[in-house]
Design brief:
The chain has one domain: NADP-dependent oxidoreductase domain (TIM Barrel, Alpha-Beta Barrel). 39% of the residues lie in helices and 15% in strands. The chain has ten helices and ten strands. The protein starts with 5 loop residues before the first strand and ends in a 19-residue tail after the last helix. The chain has 276 residues and is an alpha/beta fold. Helix 1 runs parallel beside helix 9. The chain binds nicotinamide-adenine-dinucleotide. Nicotinamide-adenine-dinucleotide binds next to helix 9.
Length: 276
Amino acid sequence: MHLQSTKRLANGVEMPWFGLGVYKMTDRDETIAAITQALQVGYRAVDTAALYYNEAEVGEAIRHSGVPREEIFVTTKVWNSDQGYDNTLRAFETSLKKLDMDYIDLYLTHWPVADKFVDTYRAIERLYDEKLIRVPGVSNHHQHHLEQLLGKANIAPVVNQIEVHPYLSQQSLRAFCEEHNIAVTAWSPLGRGGVLTDETILALATKYGKTPAQIVLRWHLQHNILVIPKSVTPHRIKENAQIFDFELTNQDMQTLDALNQNKRFGKNPDNFKFDF
Ligand code: NAD
């Protein structure tokens, strides 16, 4: 396995295991510099969203990178206030224009807005039928949300992007997704940096001669979880990708699993105020 290795998704599309998250990258030059550097280091996936207000910068950095568009896996998401069938189709057009692309690789419902997420996903299925997206997916969907979709969808969501890190291992939702061939991507894979001072993780970092971030990202990969860590710092962008030259033992995987405390750094989809 290496930085450009891919996972074959349920619909046959190959998705890189590793990508750059660009949430909170609001400074134009900094955003373009971070994506440019990531692509130079070898990253081949970028995770943005309409909410991040940087789709234009993502498109620009990719166009100027010299890497062919079709070699880069681009994810974006429909924001909560744009959900519902017609609104989602319109929001997609806007995202496509801002990215200045002909298609998007993966399009996600950002959060399951009650009374809307089923229609939102119907629109995503239509975009898939029209070949405007290569992969239909969702984000922040609990099992009960997925069950609602699975009962109605023509094509089941192929990806569910959820918060996962050693303090929130999401074991049962991951097992449900695996059973239904839904790939799991971890957002905040580093717990927004909040797990990196954990003593157990620090001790493993010393043992393997790796950094805490590398230990945590490797734990995700060994659990078949796709990752999109965020950084704008050049040495961290490089560091985060250097996780393909070592392997955690089963015992150390279990030690990391035992750190779970069901602790969220982000919101719980079941009690999130969607109306902003
Ligand atoms: P993350 O877990 O990737 O942590 C990012 C933070 O960790 C950085 O801001 C930096 O402070 C620190 N960091 C990064 N690399 C480091 C290193 N090597 N050493 C020390 N510190 C380091 O958190 P995130 O940005 O919240 O999540 C990653 C991506 O997931 C986002 O950028 C976004 O693309 C996506 N995301 C999606 C959702 C969703 O609802 N679908 C929500 C949040 C984030």
